[in-house]
TrEMBL record:
SUPFAM superfamilies: Ribosomal protein S10. Residues 1-31 are annotated as: Disordered. Belongs to the universal ribosomal protein uS10 family. GO terms for molecular function: structural constituent of ribosome. GO terms for cellular component: small ribosomal subunit. It holds the Pfam family Ribosomal_S10. Residues 37-130 form the Small ribosomal subunit protein uS10 domain. This is Small ribosomal subunit protein uS10 domain-containing protein. Keywords: Ribonucleoprotein, Ribosomal protein. The keyword Metal-binding does not apply.
């Protein structure tokens, strides 16, 4: 209280205005970077290794962070059958085997860049792309 018994009036405060930081607005223009895992599976090791090397070379040329290829254990699928179709005769057996090879590649990149990297892939190699965050 002042000597007069009147409360002093505080000076007016300036109105709060929305301020946009130029650094933050430039980040909004850039595409969001995702953690992307590319899973490659094939029965042919040579074509699988070739595709892995091409993907890594393309991503490094775009200056992306790459981890891999991580070589997963080979799956051996076996089927044992009788040689004779009728069931008579000597009991001889055939064993057929199919080996499935798998590789993992992890990238930190926008989805548009990953589409450009994956566009040309050899036949016989299956590609699965998963995006996290």
């Amino acid at each position: 209280m002042t000597r007069d018994g009147i409360f002093p009036i505080p000076p007016p405060t300036p109105p709060k205005m929305s301020f946009q930081d130029p650094k933050k607005t430039s980040q909004l223009d850039q595409p969001k970077i995702h953690k992307i895992r590319i899973t490659l599976t094939s029965r042919k090791v040579a074509s699988l290794e070739k595709v892995c090397q091409e993907l890594i070379d393309r991503s490094k040329s775009k200056e992306l962070r790459v981890k891999g290829p991580v070589r997963m254990p080979t799956k051996n699928l076996k089927v044992t059958t009788r040689k004779s179709p009728c069931g008579e005769g000597s009991k001889t057996w055939d064993t057929y085997e199919m080996r499935i090879h798998k590789r993992l590649i992890d990238l930190n990149a926008p989805t548009e860049v990953v589409k450009q990297i994956i566009i040309n892939i050899e036949a016989g190699v299956e590609v699965e792309v998963t995006i996290a965050a």
